[in-house]
Amino acid sequence: MMAHRPGLFARGSAWVVALYLLLPISIIIPVSMTDQRFLSLPKEGLSLQHYATVLGSPEWLASIWQSFLIAVVATGIAVAAGTLCAIGCWRVASRSTNLVRALMLLPIIIPSIVYAVGLYRYFAGLDLLDRFMGVAIAHGVTGIPYVVITVSTALAAFDPRLEQAARGMGASLSQTLRWVILPRIAPGILSGAIFAFIHSWDELVIVLFIASRDVFTLPRRIWDGINENLDPAMAAVAVLLVVFTTGLLLLDRALRRRRDG
Amino acid sequence: MSAAGHALALQGLSKRYGSFTAVADVSLAVGQGEFLTLLGPSGSGKTTILMCIAGFVEPSEGRILLDGRDITALPPERRDFGMVFQGYALFPHMTVAENVAFPLRVRKLGAAERDAKVRAALDLVQLSAFGERLPRQLSGGQQQRVALARALVFEPALLLLDEPLSALDKKLRAELQDELKALHRRIGRTFVNVTHDQEEALSLSDRVAILNHGKLIQQGAPTELYEAPRTRFVADFLGKSNFLSGTVQEVFAGGFAIGAGATRVVTAAAEAPPLGSPALLSLRPEKMALLAEGEAAQNSVAGTIESWSYLGAGYALNVATPDFGTLRITLPSWNAPIAPREGLPVRLGWSAAASVPVLDDLA
Question: B345 near B257, Cβ under 8 Å?
Fold first, then answer.
């Protein structure tokens, strides 16, 4: 069968949308290599001085490291809770589990600023404001939806007869989980983990509300930097962020291809 | 693998889903080392019964006994039954050897013992050279044999087979049927098989239970079911059959005669319905013969060939008769007395024993 070729208009608008999405991101690449001392396009030549500033500054490095640690812990929380929730809903499979699954998606449905205000009130009583664990828990809980979605998708493709076969051969629930179900849905769990990680890695709104001085994540430092001075170091950080996130997404793609192939 | 098989009994088993009855009051006994096949069209409840035996479906009523012990409430993982699933359900992320080792790993057997048993099981199904392959690298027939090895490696009390051959092409199916039968003889275990393929049921089983709409219609040895079907459904589902309907005209010792129009047909039967009541006879196409000019038979009807086909080993003729509609008859082709042609007048003859009275359960 001949593939249907798109018309000029359809192709044109596709390019416009793609450029619209890509241009603001790509503009920061030349900006990050500016030879000026403020946020601008390079004038006389390219320079890597702002990258040197970022990678040589204890504040920036501390924020990068703290964001990374928070994202790791948050990813752990999201993966454990999200995977168990998805498997539980899949096994019980009734109308109420559909409700539970919908409930689990709440963090990405309601505006994060509303969620953040609620967390602020709630965390004050628990002494979790401006604490590493407070931010990690908040990011972990809001990361759960990504894991629930990817793991549920993986489970939908799981042949239930494999579970029956395992149980028929005498495997207990935990053996079936460890040896049959988890290996089959591992790519889904990993996808969810990557999304949960990215979610925590660039989350700002919640951090603005529940952290102030002790917890100062990378997005928070960028935000402050833009508010205080237009330091081109921000563009260098942004480029590093984009490269890192793109790397994670490519990893996710490669994993999917390996599973499907 | 020489331990004796175990005996299984179903007592008044029923399964209802809401208002739908999938299985209705089925009682069955499977003897030690017996090969029982549950045969029926789709929706007859045969798979539901197998799933009840395996423990994946909880019966609404009735009991399941293994060697006299009630196992109805036992979860599947504690029943110790081997099962070959439809589509095999091999673990795609494990090699053939790992698949076969799975039930032993669950039972925490030592590595040396486990390896020895896996090797023996793969030998049994002639796949010793394939241990390191992944299931998707095997053909359908090989996957089926891996599923068998996996189901047998832990010496289960019972082997359950859910349409084990349905995914294979015809030739391979015949081969694996022979293998399965030989395997059953060799290891002497109790097998419960589910199929909708009547040929498979006849050739494999010691006993066949025929189901329809969740009810057990008839059970017995394959020859018994084929030669003496009790109802129209059984005669029709197991092989092919003509049906002659008429009213009882005469009752005599060891049989009775029915009349339809100007034709009279005698049948052999232990007991006869009352005179004047309607009766239905089943008549297998291969149990009729073409009669020569002046040749006599216990029963005969005249008709003309409506259509015919050549099947290699035989001919199948559809013969239009005045009183019984179209009758199908098969003849071996190598010594067929006539060259079939449409419109040819013929006379069909058969013995009293060939026409078997059946209950009309499809009316």
Answer: no
Contact: B106, A171; criterion CB under 8 Å = yes
Walk along chain A (261 residues) and give the pLDDT tens digit of each residue: 556 777 889 899 999 999 988 888 888 888 888 887 777 788 887 888 888 888 888 888 888 898 999 999 999 999 999 999 999 888 887 788 888 888 888 888 888 888 888 888 888 888 878 888 888 999 999 999 999 999 999 998 888 889 999 998 889 888 999 999 999 899 899 989 999 998 998 888 888 888 878 888 888 888 887 777 777 888 888 888 888 888 888 888 887 777 654
B234 vs B220: CA distance, rounded Å? 12
Give the residue on B whose Cα is nearest the Cα of A172: B77
- Is residue A114, in this structure, part of any structural domain at all? yes
* Interface touch A169/B92, C-beta < 8 Å: no
The B20-30 sheet, strands edge to edge:
B20-30, B8-17, B61-66, B69-70
Query: pTM (2 decimals)?
Result: 0.78
How many domains in chain A? Answer: 1
Out of A161, A171, A184, name the one closest to residue B89 (CB). A161
- Cβ-based neighbour number of residue A47 at 10 Å: 15
Do residue A168 and residue B77 have CB atoms under 8 angstroms apart? yes
ipTM exceeds 0.95, yes or no:
no
Residue A87 inside a domain? The answer is: yes
Q: Which residues of B touch A175 (CB under 8 A)?
A: 106
Please judge whether A169 and B102 are an interchain contact, meaning their C-beta atoms are less than 8 angstroms apart.
yes
Token code pair at residue A155: 């489970």
Give me the CATH number covering residue A199. 1.10.3720.10
In a domain, A245, yes or no: no
Cβ-defined contact of A171 to B87 (cutoff 8 Å) = no
